[in-house]
């Protein structure tokens, strides 16, 4: 058997995560347990080109699909007014009938052993993934008709896991070929050029970021961000465009294919 360790050169190893580095907040955080009915995904961004602007966008479970809560300010929270390192964050969403307050705390790294179906075979693998804990407090504005409440949810970081799998001869060669091909997605390519070669993964997708898979290795994925246009007549919401340009590409990673 040929041991193939994904994460050392291809993926961002989760061992780099420290509870004191605020940059570790940046990325896409997803919830695997949707039974709680609350937040299903957070995308935290940092833009330090003009000052230091932190934002977070959330999606919530809304019956048949996820609702976009819109982007809002993300505040880093330290232990004192002179803190230079941060392991917590805070955000607030204001709506007509209630406000939602979300606190975010690093929870370290979760290690899970599982199996992944690869070309009809059940292959054992191990994944170690950074996690955050979010505490969601909902405060209503209806003069006591509804009770305020809180939920605590764990989210894991998509695309920044270290995974170790074992593949033999031909399977290893086939896998490496897929990795090489999906790495041909480069900055400046258009959305149409990417979609011509690589299908979208299932699940939630938004105009500014998408998750693509390899057509022959659906468990091999990359996250791609695009420079998108906005619609001023629709509160400045981002819109899809075939000519949207790629602005950021993650390292390839392994994940079970998601069905729509």
Commentary on this structure:
The chain has helices at 169-182, 191-197; strands at residues 2-6, 27-30, 39-47, 53-62, 65-77, 88-94, 98-118, 121-140, 149-157, 162-167, 209-214, 217-227, 229-231, 237-239, 245-249, 253-254. The radius of gyration is 20 Å and the shape is globular. The chain folds into two domains: 1-167, no CATH class; 170-260, no CATH class. A hairpin with a 2-residue loop joins strand 4 and strand 5. The protein is mainly beta and 260 residues long.
Characteristic key phrases:
single chain; 260 residues; mainly beta; 2 domains; four-stranded antiparallel β-sheet; 2 helices; 8% helix; disordered N terminus
Tell me the number of helical segments per DSSP (H or I, 4 or more residues long). Answer: 2
- Please write the string of helix (H) and strand (E) elements: EEEEEEEEEEHHEEEEEE
Instruction: Tell me what portion of residues adopts beta-strand conformation.
Output: over 45%
Number of strand segments: 16
How far apart the termini lie comes to 34 Å
Percent helix range: under 10%
Low-pLDDT runs = 1-20
């Amino acid at each position: 058997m040929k041991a193939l360790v994904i994460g050392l050169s291809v993926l961002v190893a989760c061992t780099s995560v420290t509870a004191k580095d605020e940059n570790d907040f940046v990325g896409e955080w997803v919830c695997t347990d949707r039974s709680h009915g609350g937040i299903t995904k957070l995308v935290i961004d940092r833009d330090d080109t003009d000052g230091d602007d932190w934002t977070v966008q959330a999606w919530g479970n809304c019956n048949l699909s996820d609702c976009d809560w819109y982007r809002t300010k993300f505040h880093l929270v330290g232990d004192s007014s002179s803190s230079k390192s941060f392991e917590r964050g805070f955000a607030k969403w204001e709506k007509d009938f209630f406000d939602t307050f979300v606190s975010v705390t690093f929870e370290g790294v979760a290690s899970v052993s599982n199996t992944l179906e690869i070309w009809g075979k059940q292959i054992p693998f191990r994944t170690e993934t950074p996690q955050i804990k979010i505490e969601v407090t909902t405060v209503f504005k209806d003069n006591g008709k509804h009770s305020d409440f809180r939920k605590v949810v764990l989210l894991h970081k998509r695309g920044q896991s270290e995974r170790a799998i074992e593949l033999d001869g031909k399977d290893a060669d086939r896998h490496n070929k897929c990795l090489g091909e999906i790495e041909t997605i480069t900055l400046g390519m258009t959305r149409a050029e990417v979609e011509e070669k690589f299908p979208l993964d299932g699940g939630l997708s938004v105009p500014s970021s998408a998750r693509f898979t390899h057509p022959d290795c659906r468990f091999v994925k990359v996250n791609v961000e695009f420079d998108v246009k906005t619609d001023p007549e629709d509160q400045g919401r981002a819109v899809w465009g075939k000519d949207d340009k790629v602005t950021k590409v993650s390292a390839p990673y392994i994940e079970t294919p998601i069905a729509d």
